[in-house]
Predict the structure.
Amino acid sequence: MGRKKKSKVSGDALRAKKSWRKGKNRRKWDEEGTTAPSTPMRQRISAEAESKDISALELEPGIVVGVQGPYWEVDLASDQRLNCRVARSVQSENAGETLVCAGDNVLVTRIDELDDAQDAGEGLIYKVLERETKLMRKAPAHKGGAHIIAANMDVLVVFVAAADPFYNKRLIDRYLIAAQQGELAACIFVNKCDLFDVEVMQEDLYVYEELGVPVFFLSSTDGAGVQEAYEALADKTCVISGPSGAGKSTFINAVFGLEVQDTGEISTKTFKGMHTTTGARLLRTPGGGYLVDTPGIREFGVWDLEPEQVQWYFPEIEAVQQECKFHSCTHVHEPACAVQAAVEEGRVHPDRYQSYLNIVQTLQEA
Ligand SMILES: Nc1nc2c(ncn2[C@@H]2O[C@H](COP(=O)(O)OP(=O)(O)OP(=O)(O)O)[C@@H](O)[C@H]2O)c(=O)[nH]1
Ligand SMILES: [Mg+2]
Ligand SMILES: [Zn+2]
């Protein structure tokens, strides 16, 4: 699927855009016997925000491409950029979720007109449209709730490293659950292949190929495999997520042939990254898609899942669980469990089963 989503906004948005073009809102003022306000646009907008009446505003559809200080950066369909704050009366079609995130389709109003001296004008976000897909994780313990890393993407690239930091299959499996929950296709990029034996890793990660999740081996610093991995993403919109220091930003720079994203050293004490990237950012690819660089994650907790639902997200477990003797089998300790038998016979990979057990246990303890 191409990056159609930029203009693929709800009918609501298109109507808003149309009425803006026709100057319908201005006519309305005239009909009501008032003239279009001569006060600065900023004052008019804040007055209307107070009245919570967004129907009278000139709304334009845009896509959130990143965050810069207090502003969300929004690209408009006209290819202009607005630095936006969120209006007090903002409406969201995503109840209970992060209000705004990278990749969101939003409706905005301009506050300042662009002038030649500025790269971007200023605006306000009035509406966040329904997310078609999302990469969502459990927010870190102190924050609570769900954290949406990016919205409206086609593909999740689970981005890990051959070393510094060494990949963790438990983490990969939690990402693959999130991809299914958020309706994203998934693939795995193993970076820093200059640091470890690729054949060993190919064997270690073969189970994902069998499950239909493509695995790419690359080195962003020496360029090996980078082009191939990038071409697999073609014109898609892809969110790249993984541990800090795995080389996500270095990969993006290698793809663009430019220093578009800052990169950071690995800690000499922990061999982990230093959390160099601090906000998700959409970068337009020549193929018409987007690559989304995101901050490295420390942990990736699954969100919105009951222990008995975990099996649904392990297709190879789901495929055999009907043969368990007990209908409510948790596949942990029950006798005559078809899943445990499949693990013993090699039909379910023991690493995947281990991930299943870990996740069920974590959810039971929560
Ligand atoms: N040996 C080797 N080092 C790499 C490779 N790719 C990246 N690095 C190094 O790994 C370090 C971290 O790279 P970043 O691109 O900043 O990692 P990141 O995943 O963006 O990290 P965060 O932004 O903190 O999430 C840098 O010192 C890179 O030079 C690679 O393929 N091989
Ligand atoms: Mg980074
Ligand atoms: Zn069972």
Remarks:
- The chain has three domains: 11-128, 153-293, 307-365.
- The longest strand covers residues 81-92.
- The pocket of guanosine-5'-triphosphate (ligand 1) is lined by residues 191-192, 194-195, 219-221, 244-250, 263-266, 273-277, 295-296 (CB under 6 Å).
- The chain has a mean pLDDT of 84.
